[in-house]
Input
Amino acid sequence: MCLIYATAGWYKIQGSRCQEGSALYYALHLDYFAPWPALSGYLAGSTLTVLVLSYATVMVQVAFPFTLANRKVKNVLPAAMTAEHLGIAVVLGIPFLSLAMVVCDAVFLPTSLLVALGARCGRLARSRSGGPGGVPQPRPAAPLPVPEKSAS
Output
């Protein structure tokens, strides 16, 4: 993950569109990445939003490998990256890449949070299925008839 984010960030820094903060503006105007043209047009219409999101994306990607040593920042960074990828999924219509990256970013979440989230998901699954293990329980089978002994 560090290599992916650092490489993506450093390549973006080298491009003139990212240096001037307009890369997102141009991405929002590509028909292929506009599942909701009205939303893309609305976001592209706000120069400040485009500038902030463009610079924030590059800063978070470049900083990612360096922030892993700081516990407080390391716990905030996956939330920022998840928000970024959810935005990419919705605004640019790239859900599968975004889902893969969110799952990979989850590795950096605190263990206690992941354990609590797993327990909560388990409780939710059990409440929906009705069984104690989260799996619907089969009905007990009728007992098989016992063969009678012949008197021979």
Summary: The two ends are 78 Å apart (CA to CA). The mean pLDDT is 84. The chain is about 70% helix and 0% strand.
